[in-house]
Each structure stands twice: as C-alpha cells, then as structure tokens.
C-alpha cells in the first residue's frame, strides 16, 4: 500500500505561500509560513504579458492587487508597480507580485519545499508549462528537494513531463473523476491532488496501491487532517499551517512512516 518512494515534500503545505497568515502568493507569505514552522508551501504560477512566470492565482488582477485587467496582458514593468498586499492588511502595503525567480530563491534560503501549481491563463497551457517547467528545472538545480509540479491542465503536465521529466508531477482535480487513474498514467503523474471535500478512503487506498502519492486541499481542520492521514494521504495543503501541523505530530507514531523512513516532517 505504500508507494515505492517517500513523499518528498513537507507533509503540511501552506496554501498559496502563507495561507491566511499573509497576502497570498507573496514573499511575505513565504516568510510567514517559515515563521509558523511550516516546512513547505504551495503556490500558483502563470505568465505575465511579458511572458515571465509570476506568482498569482487569478487570471485578473482586481482581487489581490490594486491593478485592473488580465495578468496575461499586463507587462512586467506594470505588474511590478502594483500593490499586492494592502487588500489583505495595511501592514503588507507595498508587497509586490513576485517572480518565480524571487520565490525560488526565498524558498531555498528558508528551506521550504514547494508544490508549484502551473496555472495557465485560458489558451496558454502549453506555453506556460514550457516556461515554468524549464525555469523551475534551472532554479532548483542542485537544491536538496526539487519542486513538485501540479496542474489541473493535463496538457501542461504532458509538456512538463517532456521538458523536465525528473521533476515529479501531480494531477489536480476537484471531484475525483471515474478515470482518474488513467489520467494520472497518461500524463505521468506521480501524485493525485484532490479536493478534501470530495476525497474518500477507497480512492486513497487505490491510489497508493497504484504507487501514487496523494495530496489534498484545502484542509483547515486538524481532526479532518488526522482522518486523511489515517486513510493514507501523504500531504495536506492548508490555510492554517500552525493549526493543522499538530495532526502530523500525532500521526508520526503510525507504522506507515516509521522513524528513518525519509518522509519529511512539516
């Protein structure tokens, strides 16, 4: 039932860099995750209008910056001038939309493992995957732990597999489709990443018996996290890493991850 390799990232990942501790997808979020004792993060990467990989979740700027319009139509110089922090709290005024280069350097310096979601704007699946996979491969070259690339876009995962085959990949789904295993096989995914609201124990067991890791999002209840770990889930992604992390501590006595197994703690 245990996959042939240990899960390579922290077992609790802060959602969108720092969860609800800081503005999402920012360097401040990475610092907050590290300060909270979280050993890893998840964040989203799409392309700017200049073709540069940047950390942002939405295709439009309004929700998380003081800008307007589409990320894919906004050039780097204009994107860098935006405030990506005040919407969350005045303490973060002046926080910028970070580049993937900045985020990678900060994660490596802070010792944070990374689940990098390739998040293409509409119609940019292939180009986004090409740029992000190649850049990630370069930025984390020689790092202790390589990033895991995940995406809802199967085309993006196929492109990433061709360009950076040694970087592990995860297929993102919300409700787990009936053909999830075939899809994972088709894109060469090492992990199934599913919405915790719809994930069930039989699916976790089947995935692990098939040699896949299982990650799940967005888990903010420690009791639910404990249940998921008991089912065999490898990783939970959370908005509240400091609250959910104790579920891992409680779970460490489990025979699935005996001492010295190599699985990272959070």
TrEMBL record:
EC number(s) given by UniProt: 3.1.4.46
The record's SUPFAM superfamilies line, in alphabetical order, gives: PLC-like phosphodiesterases
* InterPro entries (alphabetical): GP_PDE_dom, PLC-like_Pdiesterase_TIM-brl
Which GO-annotated molecular functions does the record name?
A: glycerophosphodiester phosphodiesterase activity
Q: Which GO terms describe its biological process?
A: lipid metabolic process
Coiled coil ranges: none
- Keywords of the record: Hydrolase
Q: What class of enzyme is it?
A: hydrolase
All residue ranges annotated as the GP-PDE domain in the record: 10-248
Q: Does the keyword DNA damage apply?
A: no
Name by which UniProt lists this protein: Glycerophosphoryl diester phosphodiesterase
Organism, scientific name: Aromatoleum aromaticum (strain DSM 19018 / LMG 30748 / EbN1)
Taxon lineage:
Bacteria, Pseudomonadati, Pseudomonadota, Betaproteobacteria, Rhodocyclales
């Amino acid at each position: 039932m245990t996959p042939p390799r240990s899960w390579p990232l922290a077992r609790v990942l802060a959602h969108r860099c720092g969860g609800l501790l800081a503005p999402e997808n920012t360097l401040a979020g990475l610092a907050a995750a590290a300060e909270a004792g979280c050993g890893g993060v998840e964040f989203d990467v799409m392309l700017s209008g200049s073709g540069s990989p940047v950390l942002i979740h939405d295709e439009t700027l309004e929700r998380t910056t003081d800008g307007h319009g589409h990320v894919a139509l906004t050039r780097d110089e204009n994107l860098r001038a935006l405030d990506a922090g005040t919407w969350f709290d005045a303490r973060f005024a002046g926080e910028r939309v970070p580049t993937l280069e900045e985020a990678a350097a900060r994660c490596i310096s802070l010792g944070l493992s990374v689940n990098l979601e390739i998040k293409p704007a509409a119609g940019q699946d292939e180009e986004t995957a090409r740029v992000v996979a190649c850049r990630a491969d370069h930025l984390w070259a020689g790092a202790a732990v390589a990033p895991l690339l995940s995406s809802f876009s199967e085309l993006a995962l196929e492109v990433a597999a061709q360009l950076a085959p040694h970087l592990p990949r995860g297929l993102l789904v919300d409700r787990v489709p009936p053909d999830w295993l075939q899809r994972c096989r088709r894109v060469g995914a090492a992990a199934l990443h599913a919405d915790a609201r719809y994930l069930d124990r039989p699916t976790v067991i089947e995935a692990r018996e098939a040699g896949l890791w299982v990650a799940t999002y967005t888990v903010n209840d420690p009791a639910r996290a404990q249940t998921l770990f008991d089912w065999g889930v490898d990783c939970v992604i959370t908005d509240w890493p400091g609250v959910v992390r104790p579920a891992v501590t409680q779970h460490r006595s489990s025979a699935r991850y005996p001492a010295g197994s190599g699985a990272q703690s959070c």
